Amino acid sequence: MQDFIQHIINGISLGSIYALIALGYTMVYGILKMINFAHSDVYMVGAFAAYYVARFLGIENNPGFSTLITLLLFSMLSCAILGLAIERFAYRPLRKAPKLNILITAIGVSLFLEYGGQVVFGADPKVFPEVMKDFVLFNIADVELKSFDVTVLLVSLIAMLGLQFLIFKTKLGRAMRAVSANSSVASLLGVNPDRIITFTFIVGSALAGIGSVLVGMKYPKIDPLMGMMIGLKAFVAAVLGGIGNVGGAVLGALIMGLSEEMVVAYLSSTYRDALAFGILIVILIFKPAGLLGKYSVEKV
Amino acid sequence: MKRLILAALLTLPLLVGCTKKENEILIGEYDSLTGSDATFGLSTNKGVRLAFEEINAAGGVKGKKLGLITLDDQGKNEEAASAVTRLITQNKVVAILGGVASGRSKAAAPIAQSNSVPFVSPASTNPDVTKAGDYVFRVCFIDPFQGFVMAKFSSENLKHKKVAILRDVKNDYSVGLADVFSAEFKKRGGEIVADSSYQAGDIDFKAQLTQIRSKNPDGIYVPGYYTEVGLIAQQARQLGIKAPLMGGDGWDSDKLSEIGKEAINGNYYSNHYTVESSDPAVTEFIKKFKAKYNETPDALAALGYDAARILAAAIERSPDLSGKAIRDELAKTKDFGGVTGKITLNENRDAVKSAVIIQVDGKNRKYISTISP
Q1: Model ipTM?
Q2: With an 8 Å Cβ cutoff, are B258 and A228 in contact?
Q3: Contact status of A148 with chain B (Cβ, < 8 Å)
Q4: pLDDT tens-digit map of A4-58
Q5: Structure pTM?
Q6: Domains and CATH numbers, chain B
Q7: Domain boundaries in chain A?
Q8: Burial track B17-38 (b if 16+ CB lie within 10 A, e otherwise)
Q9: Strands of A34-132, DSSP E
């Protein structure tokens, strides 16, 4: 029983990190109907931004709340700027081009960041600054709840609620939903789709920035290729939840984290990814649009 | 004018191609200078360069200077294979110093073999590497020996009865060590209570470790690379696992304690050499290495150094520079006084030598014991 609860905690903690990254994929898809493969590398750059800022400010060995906030802000800021730049210089010129061109450009940007990162940051792994001390907060049924897991959960929860508020309660959010539903009609009604798209990239990338600091805190090893696997899993989580749907991305990510954890715990660690992805395939057979996605008929 | 510049630009590579010096013996080297295990390649390369510099300063080999061409394999098998092909077909090297990772050596060595170019791996410990053919050598011991050493240490010195294994399932090296450890440990009356796996690049190991924790082992054998081992150690301590971790030479990097912080302290691994040795060959090497690079050499630097010197000695002894002649001399290497011990190459072209057990203590590596074959 003790182990089972521990597995649940591990799985949720892992899932909430996937969720932060999955949100970026799903938001961009919801608005542009494109898969931004560079998203996971924006996340990587966020981790390195936090690493260098911490070293620059001399707070890499100064764990505490203020360090966490500082790094989160800087990481979000650098990711937002990078997301903005990618959208402006790589994707916007192709707005009218066939979908496939944008997709391939996205892969190109992703590879550019990964291998450019190896040149700029160096290929060997770096050690992420100590953001906070890991200590036991409280015990449930002999299972220790650690500050890392709770922080990851709280910060992701706040970020997701903030996003929910932004999309459904603000004017900007309404504009985003309008562009997502039909961008040409939205522009007829006075919404500037380019502005909204740029904004979407900024928000999505900032979420990746949050994710990168949380991952760096929990797993203090960062390298230029760190986005590859986690990006793939977050992307699959977004598809599982119904790509384009914000709540779906969170749900998909939690299922992803938990199923990985449970496969290792009770089936086989060797086949972790195979079985975890197998579960996803089964779900997608029965719900082709994802758990919360709406299956829409292509209008001709 | 433009045409003239163009013509000049086009002919430039040809001229550069002609500058190959007649009084130079070219040796090719490939290694992971970038990628997730880049410190392995960078260390080895430093050791090799130091050896070449010394040999050249002392008059070179056969009155000629040794030239080194180093290519990066980015930590990928296919890049290693193409690097070796390039070294042989374009650069026409007389011999190749291979990389660290066993998987990459397995991809690269057969190419050297089919071109009859001698291939010396400094640190690929997987047994299959030298089975590629009679031109493939190594100056390190092989995995069965490392697995054997740790199993012996675990059951005799640490008195372990129940051990869990956590292996990197995508890595030939890790799987090899884990298999031999498992067999040897059972032979000594111990019990393997869990045999879990992970994949290089993973960052979360809590699922495996929680499962291992429920079996309550005396020790955990993690024959992986330092990047993951650092994180595994941290997460194991976070889950309250007190049992020591044990591993192989893949742990040997300064990054291990940077990533693992205090969680990695007190854990054991088997290695090729120790900086705490009082052997004059070792102290001399450390002094020279520090003078040149301003850092303490790790085992891979020492192996790179030994590999380069053994190869140079074989070339010196061989009557000509043909692959066959150098190969024959390499095979005769016996009791070579290297930094990593007395090296004899056996009939399988593997080195026979002892291993040391090291305990991690912050940046320091405490020497615990030497275990002979």
Answers
A1: 0.78
A2: no
A3: yes
A4: 888 888 888 889 889 888 888 888 888 888 888 899 999 999 999 999 988 888 7
A5: 0.75
A6: 2-141+279-354 (3.40.50.2300), 144-271 (3.40.50.2300)
A7: 20-234
A8: eeeeeeeebbbbbbbbbbbbbb
A9: 126-127
